[in-house]
Structures are given as structure tokens and as C-alpha cells.
Amino acid sequence: MTRRALISVSDKAGVVDFARELSVLGYEILSSGGTAKILTQNGIACKEISHETGFPEILDGRVKTLQPKIHGGILAKRDNPAHREEMKKHGIEPIDIVAVNLYPFEETIAALGREGITGITDDVIENIDIGGVALIRAAAKNFNDVLIVTSPADYAPLIAMLKKGAIDNQSRQKLAAKAFSHTAYYDGLISNYFTEDKFPETITIPLKKLASLRYGENPHQDAALYESRAQASMGGVVNARILQGKELSYNNYLDLDAAWRLIREFDEPACAIIKHSNPCGCAVASSILEAYTRALACDPVSAFGGIIAVNREIGEAEALAITALFTECIIAPSFSAKAREVFLKKKNVRLLEQPVIMKATPIIEREVRALSGGMLLQDKDNALLNESKPVTQRPPSMQEMDSLLFAWTLCKHVKSNAIILVRGCQTVGVGAGQMSRIDSLAIAAEKMKTVRHGLDEKQIPLVLASDAFFPFPDVVAAAAKIGVTAIIQPGGSIRDEDSVKAANDHNIAMVVTGMRHFKH
Hints:
This protein has 19 helices and 21 strands. The protein is an alpha/beta fold and about 525 residues long. The protein has three domains: about 5-195, Rossmann fold; about 240-355, AICAR transformylase, duplication domain (Cytidine Deaminase, domain 2, 3-Layer(aba) Sandwich); about 390-510, 3-Layer(aba) Sandwich (Cytidine Deaminase, domain 2), CATH 3.40.140. α8 runs antiparallel to α10. The longest helix is centred in the middle third of the chain and has 26 residues, at about 170-195. The radius of gyration is 30 Å and the shape is elongated.
């Protein structure tokens, strides 16, 4: 009996060589539309599907493979006598290989996103594949008898297996699993694009594997990196171009993401230094070199082996300053040629270039956290504050207010309980991840003792930000002892009056935001 392969692909990469190899192996090729045309042009004999079915493509190609002679040839169980009899009765020939990939829905919506077009356009609708998905699922369901291939990357391995002889069931199942993942990913893209509900009854998160990582947070944990193509146009760490350095680790990616999310908050030249997902220094200045110098001054000990993010190009001067300290990774919009020369002397330093610095919007970004037995979904914390209302007898000065807003911006990127001490637009103390807010303040105050760079303590007031309200006035009292002159916090405690009174007693200006920034 003649072996037959159905080939109908949108992605034509490698298809000519694949079909030629199948022809040499004795397979009859069935094909349709553009695939049949390109195979014929390259001298590969193929039979049009419409000739096989006796029915032409109709409705502008919307219906061409949805036909019993095609699906019967795929779904028939070869070891079932009743199936063989029905195939004979209806003139259905078996199909042994199905090579199909789908209309470029993903590329279509990505292009629309880049062009600023939203909504379900005719182009979107016409790039939803129906027949291709049916062919893939049919072949994958009957994987014991039919080989299904959905990726050009699998053409050569499949040919190699065919040349060796019979293909084992494990290999067939592996191809089927990949095929079902292919259609699930495709349908996930479509359902997400169509769905307007923020949290629908069921949800599919389409992700595409980019790389296996050496290990996860620890060497005994396996890990991999996946890309969300729906958010690729927003920029970010996953889509950054790696210019040099060792392979990125799981922990590198986590810290790089924390750094990049913080740095895109600022319009002015800014630098953030991250260690274990928390900023150990951050500053805004008139230049990136000054911002880096001030960010480093906050906690140079913790900055050793950290992650650096900036929101402007890194030039030679910045590169020379950065390479004076051991740094794991650096991410920036660009690097000058001179900077690249400097970094080449530190070949293990990972350089990432991400020119897209797009402020996130709550509508687009969702955060997924795994739980035992499920997941939590929420909007990303992309808002900043509801208000900035003074609640003390003395309002903050303009200088204090600028510092408070900088501190508050930084505060939402620090693990709770978070206390941030700032002079000007420079961190001088960060207390993160403590069970007690007073302990976070003690850590931040201790860090501040080592900060001296460029700070006139008599001229530049010390301000404090807290990610959540004060249930007691103890933080205010402790802040007064270290010279804090202004505080920003969410407010909302039933004991707010106690904290306000403590601030008034110490002549501290206090501003409430009406919005907290817990970060667990």
C-alpha cells in the first residue's frame, strides 16, 4: 500500500526539503493552496487535496480539508477491521503523516499591536485557522497510526527516524504531545485576544519556551525560561538582547526583572542596583554616571555581585565606573561602542540591551503566582498613589515633597515590610522584608550610617517612605531620632491620629497617599 503524507503549512520554512525527502522515501504527497504551489514549483510531485476529495476549496479557502476523505484517512484505526471495511466502502485511503502548522494569528496580532490598532479586525478573523487545527488534533489523536509534525524543527529528525525504519510509539506520542501543545497555545492566544473579562471563568496562559536554564533558585531545582508573546512589544527582560556574558540564571532573570521594572518608573536619568529582588540603591540625577555613583553610595557592600539597571545609554565613563565593582548583570537601553570595549575586558559580565522602556498599564499586565493546587492572578502593581495629602500641621516643603515622591516610587518595589530613607533623589537606607516595620526602619537607619557621597546633611532633608500604614506611632518616634523631617505613608489605620500626633510633636511633615504597596 502506498504511504501518504499530507502537507499544508503556513510557515514554509524547510518544507521543500522535507517533502523532497518524503518523496524519495516513497511517500505520495497531498497538499493544498500555497503549499502545493511551492512544492510543484520546486519539482516535487503532489496531489491537490481537492482532487483527492472531488470537492473544490470553497468560501475563499475557509473550507478545503474539512472532508471525510481527509479526516477518515487520518482517524481510521489501522488494526480495526470495521474501520478498514468502511474505508474501502467509501474509497478512503489512509494518510500516514500529517505536516501542518497554522495561520499566523500570533504574528497578525503582534503587528496590529505595533501599529496601535486594537479590536477584532477582518485580518484577525481570517488568520484564525480551523481546518489546520482539526487536522492536527485528528492526527495527534490517532498517533499510534499517524505521525504528526507541527514544527519545521522536527522535519529533519522525523526524516532521520523514517530512514531507520519503524518509529516507536514513544516517539509518536512525543510528536502528538507537541501537536496538542501547539493547538492549545494557538487557541490560548485567540481566547485571550477575544476575552474582555479581566478574570474569566477559565484561563489559558500561552507561553513559548525560549531556553532551558542550568538550574532554578538552587542547583537541585530544574528551570526553564518562557516568553509571553502577547507582551513582547512592551519590552522587558525576556525580550532584551544579550550582548555578552555567561548564560543567565533563574535568579539573574528575577533580579533583572525587578531592576527593569523599577528603572522604567523614572523619566530622568536613573540607576537602580538590585540584590535578591530588592533595591540596595537607587538614584535619579542629571547624568547616568552621577545616578550610578549615588545609587552605589547607599550600600556598596550589598551592591557587590548585584544587578544594575539604567534608563539611558551607558557610555565609556559609566562602564569604567561600573567595572570597578563586581557586577552580575547590567541592563540598559543601549551601550556605546567605547562602553562595549570596556566591558569586553570583563567577559563574564552579562550585558542586556532593551531599548523599549514602556511604562506598564494595569489593563495589560497580570501577575501570576503559583500556589499548591492552583494559582493567584492579579493586576500588576502599576499605580502609584491616589492622592498626596498632607495631614500634619506642617506641610512638606517642595524639596521634601520631591524626595517623598521619589521614595514612594521606590517603596513599591521593595519587599514588605518596607522602609525607605531618602535624601534628595537618592536612597540612603533601605529596610526590606522584615516581619516588623520598626525592624525595617532599624535596618535602613543602620545602612544610612555608611552613606556619605555628595550629601550635605544640613541642606538636604531626610525623608521616609513606608509601604503600608502605621498601626502604632513607634516608627514616627524612631524616625525623629535619626533626623527624618518628612514621611509618606498610605494612611488608613484606625490609629492614624496617634501617628499624626507623633509627627506634629516632632515637627515632621506627613503625607498620606490613600494607596498601599504591599509586596510579598
